[in-house]
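Recap for those who missed Tuesday's class. We walked through two folding examples back to back. For each one, the amino acid string is listed first and its predicted structure tokens come directly after. Nothing is annotated here on purpose, so try labeling regions yourself before you check the end of the notes.
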Amino acid sequence: MELLVSGTTIVTIVVACVMALYWLNIFIILYHLIRFGVGTRPKQSAFIFFAGSFVLFLFLMLSTLPIIYYN
């Protein structure tokens, strides 16, 4: 029970929940851009949006890694 209450575990769970919500929102936006867009322009903007979201996700995960695992 002590392991579940530790600060590191709580921070990890919170970060994982925030990331899950973030990726759910990204999926919803991408789905609507691709599904209801006419032509190739919305699909190109959806790809650029996804690539930027992925880079931000990697940056966030790499920046929180030292905080979560080394403290």
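Example two. Treat it independently of the first, because the proteins are unrelated.
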Amino acid sequence: MQTLPQPTPPAASRAFTIILERLYAMARHLDAPLGAPSDLEATLMALPSDKRTQVMLVLESVESRATARADQELADAARAVQNAAERVWTSHGTTDRPRFRAGDGEQKVHARPEHN
């Protein structure tokens, strides 16, 4: 019986590392205060809030295109970073603006639910 290869967890994949490096470079280019290059949470928090919608759009596009090309590692990595961004930015109260979803060649705005 042949064992199937275990998928690489998104945070350990090369695709995840590349995405994190690009986000870190973006934050550094914007002169944001940064932690270690491998610290995803610190890198996400260093991104200015006016750039966060753009980051999410790019990650959603990467995930969509990777899925279409059957590049599951890249799609999982993009999804993992999206989920981390949502968690980090929500926990720091920075999700009160509309959220954009890429797809179907147009951008659609989805209002975020209010947290009371």
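Answers for example two:
The beta strands are 99-101, 108-110.
The helical segments are 14-29, 40-46, 52-68, 72-91.
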